[in-house]
């Protein structure tokens, strides 16, 4: 006896109902359950790459997420500055062990070069420096996605501007290197997902 393949009242044939649908995907970033065919979650999490790249939805702005407080920004700045100073000291000691004479100008260049590399590597790979990880913040673009290498490099270069560190005292804690690279630093403590920090 042949199976009836005509459409039923619900609009699906027996063949359609018998075909297994792709398993639902739970977002690792916000916890939203997505259809099995989804390529990216509404929050911007890319299932293939396993990281936030940007939402396909238009109009999602970072202003809907809580910006990091001045205290968090200052705390991260202090931690990262000490880390950069320690790395620079180790590099200077390495140069001295190689017989290279210590030069004040060279030391400054080494410090700023180390600072740029430090911020670029950490923020490009993880959206967080060790200081941001400790205080519970991360860097995002204006639409809440992970910044690309160009934005991270711009952030790092702008930090070299004199008195840039004082720019965070105003404008609700938005520093020059945030504003001119079109990025923001938001509060996201360790162990909390993007869904949990949404207002």
List keywords for this structure.
single chain, 199 residues, mainly alpha, 2 domains, two-stranded antiparallel ribbon, 7 helices, 40% helix, elongated, disordered N terminus, disordered C terminus
> Which bin fits the share of residues in helices?
40-55%
E-strand count:
6
The count of helical stretches stands at 7
- Note poorly predicted spans: 1-8, 10-16, 193-199
Outline the biggest β-sheet: 2 strands, antiparallel
Question: Radius of gyration, Cα only, in angstroms?
Answer: 24 Å
Strand content: 5-15%
Structural class: mainly alpha
Could you give the distance between the termini? Answer: 59 Å
- For the record, the count of structural domains works out to 2
H/E series: HEEEEHHHEHHEH
Overall form: elongated
- List the strand order in the largest sheet: 1-2
Rounded mean pLDDT is 78
Topology:
Layout: H1 14-18, E1 25-26, E2 33-34, E3 45-46, E4 51-52, H2 70-97, H3 104-126, H4 130-135, E5 137-141, H5 149-158, H6 176-179, E6 183-187, H7 194-197
Antiparallel strand pairs: 1-2, 3-4, 5-6
Helix pairs in contact: 2-3, 3-5
Overall description:
With 199 residues, the protein is mostly helical. The chain has two domains: 44 residues, no CATH class; 129 residues, no CATH class. Helices cover 40% and strands 9% of the residues. The chain has seven helices and six strands. The strands form three sheets. Strands 1-2 form a two-stranded antiparallel ribbon. Helix 2 crosses helix 3 and helix 3 packs antiparallel against helix 5. It is elongated and about 70 Å long. The N and C termini lie far apart (59 Å). The N terminus and C terminus are likely disordered.
């Amino acid at each position: 006896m042949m199976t009836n393949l005509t459409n039923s009242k619900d609009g699906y044939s027996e063949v359609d109902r018998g075909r297994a649908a792709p398993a639902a995907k739970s977002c690792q970033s916000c916890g939203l359950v997505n259809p099995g065919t989804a390529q990216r979650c509404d929050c911007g999490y890319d299932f293939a790459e396993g990281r936030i790249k940007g939402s396909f939805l238009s109009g999602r702005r970072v202003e809907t997420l809580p910006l990091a407080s001045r205290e968090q920004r200052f705390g991260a700045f202090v931690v990262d500055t000490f880390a950069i100073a320690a790395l620079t000291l180790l590099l200077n000691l390495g140069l001295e062990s190689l017989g290279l004479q210590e030069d004040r100008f060279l030391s400054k260049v080494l410090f700023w070069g180390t600072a740029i590399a430090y911020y670029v590597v950490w923020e490009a790979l993880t959206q967080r420096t060790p200081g941001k990880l400790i205080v519970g913040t991360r860097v995002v673009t204006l639409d809440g996605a992970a910044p690309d290498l160009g934005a991270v490099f711009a952030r790092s270069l702008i930090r070299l501007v004199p008195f840039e560190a004082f720019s965070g005292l105003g404008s609700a804690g938005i520093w020059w290197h945030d504003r001119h690279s079109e990025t923001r630093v938001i509060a996201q403590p360790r162990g909390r997902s993007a869904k949990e920090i949404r207002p």
